[in-house]
Amino acid sequence: MRGCPFCGKSIRADATQCAFCREAIPDVRLKTRAFASEGRSKIRRGLLYVLLAAIIHYFAAGYSGLTLPVTIPTVVTDYGTPALFLCGFGIIIYGICLYLRS
Question: How many domains does one find in the chain?
């Protein structure tokens, strides 16, 4: 049971017309979890950035047995990959906040 938006009397939840005032009940669909899909996409993007930072740091810092054909400046491993990691982590936290908000 729910209340009629026009007269306030109790009517069935699946009614299309009020039995008391004879007004047509509009079919209103509420969008649930409006921020949930956006939050999940932000979490995935943040995880992608964190993974990308880890892969770049792994190869640029020389942890792998491969030798790269180009020389990677130390600025990349000292500042670039940690900044990319922290940005990705921040996006993950923002996505979690959006997800919990919905």
Answer: 2
